[in-house]
Design brief:
Jelly Rolls; 8-stranded antiparallel sheet; 45% strand
Amino acid sequence: MSDKSDFTPMFGLGSPNDAYAQYFIGNSYLKPLTSAAECGVGLANVTFEPGCRNNWHVHHASKGGGQILICTDGRGWYQEWGKEPRALGSGDVVVIPAGVKHWHGAARDSWFSHIAFEAPGEDCTNEWLEPVSDEDYPA
């Protein structure tokens, strides 16, 4: 399932995630589902090609904040710093509190999509960190 013509995410593929490509190993695609400016909540479908993952990163906030992932298609991974990777599939939900260093992405042999929800909070920022090494990426 390495050809994107073989993979049709529930919410559509979206456009190449060029604005954030520097923070990913491999190609990802972004399809905004709502606008935070219009409704106060930003939701986006993020699709990862097989083997694609984002860098380690932290969602900071002085109050509230964090991120929620709602997995919709394919198979992927989530890992918090200092913990073992967690396999993800359709229907899984990951709640990531503010301040937790983590990464997420596709399995080596599967496309993967999730809805990303940036939880409302105060003084929210994202800090992008180092790439996930091949040694740390699950086999």
